[in-house]
């Protein structure tokens, strides 16, 4: 039996059992799941984490690393255990011509701040840059360049990991490969990632962004397949936005990265969109495109509301049916203010991380329902969660997979 009364080991940082710290550690961006830990460790160094990791193992307590807490269903929480706040360990150690060594608590915006002056960038970035390196490497990390480069976990050269027995190991495809494969997309339960060596590629200075609008899902999906297979663009995503008049507005967002002031001529020939706008912006502005709206949502409140998000990876053959059902049954109440859906294709051949499960099909589609529930309506939140469960059941019966989902999926 765990012995919660055994004194904590001495550390140079802080082990807190203060109410405000326990509350902080028992919530996340989803605000739908709450597990209360016994304590929160704010480490001063890796030695602190190692000492507390050994203590946790001896006393059979779960130890869970947490960084930016942007999980939506308790993935970084530790019921009755110890949550390690990784955000203080965020140093960028070294930049080479094709790689970077960084602490896992650093955010991707900090990684870019270090690499862009060298004309370099990670090949894959999440839509929002204020997520931590350790946090996204623990789930996969998928973005608009994944149709070319796979997940962020497919672009890691090596990791320094603290194993559950408190020992430190370097792992890579050739050194400790089993540990490397267990930790990438391991959701923080196979060891704590301390530092990551990340692959870098040339960063361009501009992005020319094409926004293509569609009347129907069949044409939208057909064009996404074409754009993915022909690799016409560097970046490829898509959205469905709720409208006041009824049907969801469908939009493909595709971008070319380049370093010439002239807009590259990317033909949209053969595509079925009914309307397009094209716009060239600095590369970093494009990557950080969510910053402004997130700042607004923080300021006016909805950023702090519950977010029962659904993220599914669907086999190509069933995507149109499942998404049609999902959008038809997602009433305005079930998407919430500022909610929307993401939908874009991923080729299986680009994804090699063993723990990042994808459907068996050659092409999958990421389908995310990014919902926001009013804080004063637990009934609406419960209906959104129930809708997620129903759609997940339909998707898994068709060979789909939950991405970022509950820990047992
Ligand atoms: C606004 C927003 C936008 C997003 N956009 C995308 C996107 O474009 N693509 C995408 O793929 N995902 C996206 N996500 C999901 C996001 O990638 C995951 O929720 C990610 O895990 C969050 O990182 P975090 O730093 O907040 O981690 P936390 O929520 O703190 O932790 C998440 C998981 O990582 C583990 N973990 C954290 N640090 C470490 C470590 N050092 N070692 C081992 N395990 C660790 C935790 O134990 C937990 O299981 C988005 C989420 C939000 C809220």
From TrEMBL:
Domain of life of the source: Bacteria
Domain (FAD-binding PCMH-type) ranges: 33-203
Cofactor(s) for this UniProt protein: FAD
KW Transmembrane (keyword) present: no
Protein family per UniProt: Belongs to the oxygen-dependent FAD-linked oxidoreductase family.
PANTHER family: CYTOKININ DEHYDROGENASE 6, GULONOLACTONE OXIDASE
UniProt keyword Flavoprotein present: yes
Pfam families in the record: Cytokin-bind, FAD_binding_4
A biological process from GO: cytokinin metabolic process
Sample GO molecular function, one term: cytokinin dehydrogenase activity
Entry protein name: Putative oxidoreductase
Organism for this UniProt entry: Saccharothrix espanaensis (strain ATCC 51144 / DSM 44229 / JCM 9112 / NBRC 15066 / NRRL 15764)
SUPFAM superfamilies: FAD-binding/transporter-associated domain-like, FAD-linked oxidases, C-terminal domain
Entry keyword set: FAD, Flavoprotein, Oxidoreductase
InterPro entries, per database record: Cytok_DH_C_sf, Cytokinin_DH_FAD/cytokin-bd, FAD-bd_PCMH, FAD-bd_PCMH-like_sf, FAD-bd_PCMH_sub1, FAD-bd_PCMH_sub2, FAD-linked_Oxase-like_C, FAD-linked_Oxidoreductases_BP
UniProt-listed PROSITE patterns: FAD_PCMH
């Amino acid at each position: 039996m765990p012995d919660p009364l055994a004194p904590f080991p001495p550390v140079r940082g802080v082990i807190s059992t203060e109410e405000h710290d326990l509350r902080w550690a028992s919530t996340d961006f989803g605000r739908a799941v709450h597990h209360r830990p016994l304590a929160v460790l704010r480490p001063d160094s890796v030695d602190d984490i190692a000492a507390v990791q050994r203590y946790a193992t001896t006393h059979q307590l779960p130890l869970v690393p947490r960084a930016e807490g942007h999980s939506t269903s308790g993935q970084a929480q530790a019921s009755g255990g110890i949550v390690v706040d990784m955000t203080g360990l965020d140093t960028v150690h070294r930049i080479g011509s094709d790689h970077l060594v960084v602490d896992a608590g650093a955010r991707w915006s900090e990684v870019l701040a270090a690499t862009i002056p060298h004309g370099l960038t990670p090949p894959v970035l999440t839509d929002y840059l204020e997520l931590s390196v350790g946090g996204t490497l623990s789930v996969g990390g998928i973005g608009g360049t994944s149709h070319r480069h796979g997940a962020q976990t497919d672009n890691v050269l090596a990791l320094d990991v603290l194993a559950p027995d408190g020992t430190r190991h370097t792992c890579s495809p050739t050194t400790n490969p089993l540990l490397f494969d267990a930790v990438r997309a391991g959701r923080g339960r196979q060891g704590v990632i301390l530092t990551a060596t990340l692959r870098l590629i040339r960063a361009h200075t501009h992005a020319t962004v094409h926004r293509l609008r569609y009347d129907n899902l069949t044409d939208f999906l057909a064009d996404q397949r074409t754009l993915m297979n022909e690799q016409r663009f560097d970046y490829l995503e898509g959205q469905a936005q709720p409208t006041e008049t009824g049907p969801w507005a469908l939009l493909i967002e595709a971008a070319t990265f380049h370093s010439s002031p002239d807009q590259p001529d990317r033909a949209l020939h053969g595509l079925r969109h009914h309307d397009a706008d094209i716009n060239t912006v600095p590369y970093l502005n494009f990557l950080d495109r969510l910053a402004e709206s997130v700042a607004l949502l923080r300021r006016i409140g909805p950023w702090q509301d519950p977010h029962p998000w659904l993220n599914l990876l669907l086999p190509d053959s069933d995507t149109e049916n499942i998404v049609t059902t999902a959008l038809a049954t997602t009433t305005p109440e079930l998407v919430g203010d500022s909610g929307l859906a993401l939908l874009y294709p991923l080729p299986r051949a680009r994804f090699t991380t063993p723990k990042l499960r994808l459907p068996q099909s050659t092409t999958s589609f990421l389908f995310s329902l990014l919902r926001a529930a009013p804080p004063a309506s637990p009934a609406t939140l419960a209906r959104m969660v129930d809708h997620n469960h129903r759609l997940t059941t339909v998707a898994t019966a068709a060979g789909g997979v939950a991405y970022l989902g509950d820990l047992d999926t």
